[in-house]
Amino acid sequence: MTDFRTSLLREKFTITEKLNKEAPPVIALSNRIVVPLISGDKIDNEVFVIRTQNMHSCARLAAAVAKEFFERGTIANRAMPLPWGEIWTDVIKGYERDWNENIWCTIYHKGRIIYQEGEHHPFLDIIEQCDAANKQDYSESITFAESAFSKAGKEVKIHHDSNVALITSCTKESAKCGIIVRAASGATTFNYTAVPNLRHDKPILAHTTLTVAAAFLEGVQLAFHVGLSNKKHEYRMIERFSDEERKYRRATNRLTNLDRAIGTYELQFNVTYRPDRPTFKDMVEKAERVAVKILKSEIDQKISEGIIASTEWID
């Protein structure tokens, strides 16, 4: 495997019409990761861009594409096209497929959609076309898109907000990741480095690195959901046998499985964190404290209705 580097962006595009101030702005949201793939002999060189509804699916799909390339070679020019639908289904199977009805993905190559599932904003396709035409100088794509709209007879201003959620780089010697996730319970920011463990003799691989990063990204988000649901369950705000209860149970199990997968990675490699490795247990407890504030008005109403005794509630 050659050196591999990429980053994942959380993006928000706001498109406003210059000549019609009354027109509401158009909002396009996405998570975006570029997957640059170069074979060890430097002969095969191709780049894919992945956009999805959430961060962890974006990183996990990028991992699947990287694994396919480094194990089986070039993707874009295969005589038998890659079964993208099967790969995406495998990425989101289980909890994501069952409980996220809004999940979507789009994969681009040279600005062209080669696979998509679910509904994404069509403006994102325009940005990728502009990026490809602009030789993948992404910072200039916004200006390029504004010019394209102008030539089509529509004057618009495009405002682009983006935050880096993941930075990762892999060599044969080490894998380095930086994760920055902002949630309602606060920001989680940390870095980690993994190097081979002589006892296990596992190689550093791009797809493994991205998969573990995806586990952290998903875990941070799920920890908030579990923490909030713990409090809702405690104060009898979740009906027994309801879809909400089933989702809550599945989310709790999913969080445990993600933690176990990260633990396995830490056994197979020598992993160091800066600062200390954040634990999902701590994140859940932090989310529970935030949940008390979020749910206060609902709990007060249940107390007034006699559903919850005032002695059960501590403000």
What keyword list fits this structure?
315 residues, alpha+beta, nine-stranded antiparallel beta sheet, 9 helices, 9 strands
Folded structure, characterized:
With 315 residues, the protein is of the alpha+beta class. The chain folds into two domains: 1-168, no CATH class; 171-315, no CATH class. It has nine helices and nine strands. It has helices spanning 55-72, 84-92, 95-99, 123-133, 141-151, 206-234, 243-268, 280-294, 296-304, and strands at 4-17, 26-38, 45-52, 105-109, 112-117, 156-170, 175-183, 186-196, 269-274. Helix 1 runs antiparallel to helix 6. 29% of the residues are buried.
Strand order of the largest sheet: 5-4-3-2-1-6-7-8-9
Ranges with pLDDT <50 over ≥5 residues?
Answer: 310-315
**What is the approximate shape?**
globular
Total E-strand runs: 9
Order of helices and strands: EEEHHHEEHHEEEHHEHH
What oligomeric arrangement do these chains adopt? single chain
Query: Helical segment tally?
Result: 9
**Cα end-to-end separation:** 55 Å
**How many strands, what sense, and barrel or not for the largest sheet?**
9 strands, antiparallel
Strand content: 25-35%
Helix content: 40-55%
The computed structural class is alpha+beta
What is Rg?
22 Å
Mean pLDDT: 91
What's the number of domains?
A: 2
